Every structure is written in structure tokens, then in C-alpha cells.
């Protein structure tokens, strides 16, 4: 679909006709919040959790929520229904709005609201069967990673570093401890236990974070959230990535060093199967 229907500030319009003023603070400062919601067979997946995170992020940077939850869901549904793909990735962005350029928050501005959707692109079966290579990187981003901010330069630079090294992701460490990848949460497996960093300001709480906790509980897998040292990552039996577009994805090497046996492991396969069952429920 070359010119899909989008929503911008109260209007449904073709993407090619959607325009914002150059003084929009999202353009000038990256002063905004975004969210993505996967859609499978025309049904939003964990929409409640995605919208709750959107609302938390808006509150964290003092942008008034411009819609109620039912209004958000209705707007998203309209955009979804207009797209021919059954499996989609809905993108929402809210900025503080349009004002004369000045760093402090302007008074009496209306937030800019934008919604679009595209077909979701998931890793192929061949990629899943082989696993992916990653690189490591020192985490130099700001200290409010729990906010899903549209100011993503740190993540962009980390993703570019991975691309320049023919890797799927950059796995980041701060002060010697695992944080997250450029656009994924990161997990390690040791002795059948799934472990990940705790939910703090140093990581974005991916929606799959709680989902993996639930899947572990339902499948008899021990789950532990704690600080994970760099050495533990490289010594893990398995390393996994999770995100809306990766779902759960096995990492088989970092910086050229094999992880475990260097192939996707049994816990990955069990969690991936459970994830697919959750999607179909």
C-alpha cells in the first residue's frame, strides 16, 4: 500500500498529504513520545499494556493525554481497518505541539497526534533457525530510558554500530552490567533459568518483559530479574532478544564469540512456541 491512510491532529488523510509545521517541538527538540502496537490477524496484541506504557511516558514528560483509552482504540482501529494487511505494526507519536523555539515547555499548546500502520516484518524461519549475531557496546544514552521518548539518537547510533558490523543488534552495558539493545530487551539463560535486568530507569520496560514472565510461569521456567554482569552474558547458555518486531529471537554470537553451543537453544524454542500460542489465543 503506497499511500496508506494515517491520522494527524483530528483528520484522516493519505500519508502523502500529512504535514506538520516546522516549529513542531517533535521536529525541533524530539520532544515527544511514541508507541508501537503489533497486530496479528487484525487484532491488536496486548493493546492494554501498550497504551498503559504510552500513558506513563506522556505523564513522565508532562504532556497532557489528548485522548481517552476508548478514543485511542477507536482511532487505531480506523487506521487498521483501512490497511489491507492482516498483520500490522501500528505506530503512534505524540509531541508537545507547535510553539516558538524555546527549551522550556510552552504554555497553552495542543499536542500533535500522529498514527500510522504498516505491514509487520518479522524474522524469517531461516533467520530463526540459524540465530543472529550481535555486537557489544557501552551504553552512553541518557538516564531516563524507561520513557519511550521519540528522542532516539542514542538508539540510532547503537543500531548503526550494529549495522556497520553486520550484526542484528548492539547489546549494551553500563558500568559493566547489561542494560538492553538498541531496540530490544536482552535476556540470558543459564541452567534453564531466564534472567534479565531489573525494571529501572536504565531500560525501557518492553511489553514482552511482562509477557515473558507470564510465559515462564505458565511453562515451569524459573524467571529472575537482577543485575547481570558482562561476563555472565558471554558465559550464558543462551542469549535472547525480545521486541514487538523480533518477538523472541536467539543470539548465537556476540563480538564473534559463540554463545553456548552457537545455535538456538532449547529454552528459546520453548518460549517462542509459547509466544506463538499467546498470539493465537
What's this entry about, in short?
With 281 residues, the chain is of the alpha+beta class.
Question: What can you tell me about this protein's structure?
Answer:
The chain is an alpha+beta fold and 281 residues long. It folds into two domains: 5-119, Aminotransferase class 4, branched-chain amino acid transferase, N-terminal domain (D-amino Acid Aminotransferase, Chain A, domain 1), CATH 3.30.470; 125-280, Alpha-Beta Barrel (D-amino Acid Aminotransferase, Chain A, domain 2). The protein is built from eight helices and 15 strands. Strands 7, 8, 9, 10, 11, 12, 13, 14 and 15 form a nine-stranded mixed β-sheet that branches. A six-stranded antiparallel β-sheet has the order 2-1-6-5-3-4. Strand 7, helix 5 and strand 8 form a beta-alpha-beta unit. It is globular and about 55 Å long. It starts with a strand and ends with a helix. 36% of the residues are buried.
CATH architecture of the largest domain: Alpha-Beta Barrel
Structural class: alpha+beta
Q: What is the third-level CATH name, the topology of the largest domain?
A: D-amino Acid Aminotransferase, Chain A, domain 2
Percentage beta strand? 25-35%
Radius of gyration: 19 Å
Overall morphology: globular
CATH class of the largest domain: Alpha Beta
